[in-house]
Every structure is written in structure tokens, then in C-alpha cells.
Amino acid sequence: MRVSQELEMEAEPGHEHSKTGERARMVEAFCATWKLTDSQNFDEYMKALGVGFATRQVGNVTKPTVIISQEGDKVVIRTQSTFKNTEISFRLGEEFDEISVDDRNCKSVISLDGDKLVHVQKWDGKQTNFVREIKDGKMIVTLTFGDVVAVRHYEKA
């Protein structure tokens, strides 16, 4: 049975997993290979996080590819670049351990809020949020740390 058929079955009224199916369909909108095309205020965001100068310089010129997929009941986000490759695998709404691209040890939770994929990282009493949303076929990622906001635009590769 194809994943889409399973999702359709889960979404049928009265089916016990209709919420799961609905969430899976929302996540499916993000499932693609995405290439960074534009970035605003990312250096200020990295600076606020405490990322060092040399790493920020690399971060500012690196154009990562983000691959989002569903594997069983987990969502997988792979980030690939000439600087570093990372992969996280998680269940929506469940906390997991994450080592960030800049090597912070975080407790993270990723959940759906309407049609947005909200990623919360917590470490050392601090918190940053990434909000991923699809607009006009593009993925817009808004990163917030304190009062610093950066926006990154991705297009399907």
C-alpha cells in the first residue's frame, strides 16, 4: 500500500488515526529537497546565538540543501552543505536530543501549528524557534532568538 493510500485511509471519518493522517498530510507538504535561495539577517541571528566569527563567515556564504522526508512514523530532516551535514529524526510533538549545526546540545521538539512546522531548541536556559511554512511553493524559515529574527527562503531543488 502506498503512503498516500495509507494517509487517505487514516483521514476517513471514524478512522481511529484521522488526526495522525491529517498531520502526516500536513508534513507531506514539506517533504522535498529544498535549496537555500535567500537569507535575511542570518549573521545577526548567529551572532545572537554566540556563534564565533569564523563559523559565521562560513554560515553566511553556505547555501545548504535541506531534505525533508517521512520514514514510518518519523520525520527526517537532513541538512547538507560544504560546511557540515546534519540529520535529525523525530516524532511530531516528542522531545529529542539534537546537536545543532553550531554544536549546541539541545532538547528539541518539532510540532505542527496549523500549516507551520515549529521547531523549538532549548539549551542552557535559552530557546530558539524555527518556523517552517510553505508559501507559493517555497519554504520560508523564520528563525527567532530573543528579539533577533532571521528569514531564510528555500526553493525546491
UniProtKB/TrEMBL annotation:
Residues 1-21 are annotated as: Disordered. Residues 32-49 form the Cytosolic fatty-acid binding proteins domain. GO terms for molecular function: lipid binding. The keyword Transport applies. Coiled coil: none annotated. InterPro entries: Calycin (IPR012674), Fatty_acid-bd (IPR000463), ILBP (IPR031259), Lipocln_cytosolic_FA-bd_dom (IPR000566). Residues 12-21 have a biased composition (Basic and acidic residues). Keywords: Transport. Signal peptide: none annotated. Gene3D superfamilies: 2.40.128.20. Belongs to the calycin superfamily. Fatty-acid binding protein (FABP) family. PANTHER family: FATTY ACID BINDING PROTEIN. This is Fatty acid binding protein 7. It comes from Oryctolagus cuniculus (Rabbit).
